[in-house]
Write a structure and sequence with these properties.
The chain contains 5 helices and 5 strands; from the N terminus they run H-E-H-E-E-E-E-H-H-H. The chain is an alpha+beta fold. It has a domain of about 100 residues: Double Stranded RNA Binding Domain (2-Layer Sandwich). It has a 5-stranded antiparallel beta sheet. The protein is elongated and about 70 Å long. The protein starts with a helix and ends in an 11-residue tail after the last helix.
Length: about 150
């Protein structure tokens, strides 16, 4: 009987581990894309990095590559707010995550500036609304992915 109990316990632990690893958490984002010269891309990248430097005390962080042509990720604590990348074919891609403008209102102005550089009209829809996650998604976002949906950097 003990062997059967151990087998059941191991099976349940394996299922729980698989759910923990494989459960998908999905977030939405507004996105803008266009072509930028190397110099304009670096200008857009520096705009985001400078904003993060000025607002570090509020919890804003920029993760960037040492290569100026590589992208930058902008975070409010552990919650990603913006992503700017330059793709191999010269296309620049900006995404602004759901709720980013609620975490840090200045994100709207940054998005507008970079969208203008890309020749796109600023049209927030997802970035300006709060994420609506069910309890399971919120649990996995916070405890597995380290993203606190309630965190703001005001």
């Amino acid at each position: 009987m003990k062997t059967k109990d151990i087998a059941v316990a191991v099976s349940l632990m394996a299922i729980a581990a698989a759910v923990w690893i494989l459960y998908p958490t999905v977030t939405a984002a507004d996105s803008y894309s266009g072509r930028l010269s190397d110099a304009r891309f670096v200008e857009a990248r520096d705009l985001l990095v400078d904003y993060a430097k000025r607002n570090r005390a509020r919890g804003i962080v920029a993760l960037k590559s040492h290569d100026a042509r590589m992208g930058v990720l902008l975070y409010c604590d552990t919650a990603q707010m913006m992503r700017l990348v330059s793709l191999a074919d010269g296309v620049t891609y900006l995404s602004v995550d759901e709720g980013a403008e609620l975490r840090a209102p200045e994100v709207a102005a940054l998005t507008r500036q970079v969208a203008d550089m890309l020749g796109k009209e600023y049209a927030p829809s997802i970035a300006s609304r709060r994420r609506e996650h069910n309890a399971v998604d919120a649990f996995f976002l916070k405890w597995r992915d380290g993203v606190d949906d309630e965190r703001t950097c005001l």
